[in-house]
Amino acid sequence: MGRPVGFFERERYRQLRLHALEDMCARRRDQSRYADALRLGLLAVQSEPLRETAHRQVMQVHLAEGNAGEALRQYDGFRRLLQAELGLPPSSAMRSLVDDVRHSGP
To answer: In the 8-state DSSP scheme, what is residue 31?
Structure first.
């Protein structure tokens, strides 16, 4: 027996919402509207805590503001959550972003 049609519709809506939040976060960041960008990114993270792209958006807002420590704190929290929940490390794209932050020091 398959899943009811309502399940697929809810999943479609959930995915559309997450993508919209991430897109709006990126646009606000590009407009230097960091408080709005951060609010949108954190809404995406709150909606789906294991969604790496949402965490990356939040990290990129912190980096755009010049807050490398906040970006690394966001990464560390995500890394620990992903390990605890799924036994997985963050993707190479996420680790690459962190490596760039750590190697861009003074």
So the answer is: T
Continuous segment of H or E residues that includes residue 56: helix 52-65
- Torsion angles phi and psi, residue 80, rounded to 5: -65, -40
Q: What is the pTM of this model?
A: 0.90
The DSSP H or E segment spanning 29 is helix 5-30
What is the rounded CA–CA span in Å between residue 65 and residue 33? Answer: 10
- Paired tokens of 18: 């997450």
How far apart, in Å, are the Cα atoms of 11 and each of 3, 7, 21, 56, 101? 11, 6, 15, 22, 34
Q: What is the pLDDT of residues 77-86, one digit of tens each?
A: 999 999 999 9
Q: Which amino acid is at 90?
A: P
Amino acid at 9: E
Structure token digits, residue 80: 């620990």
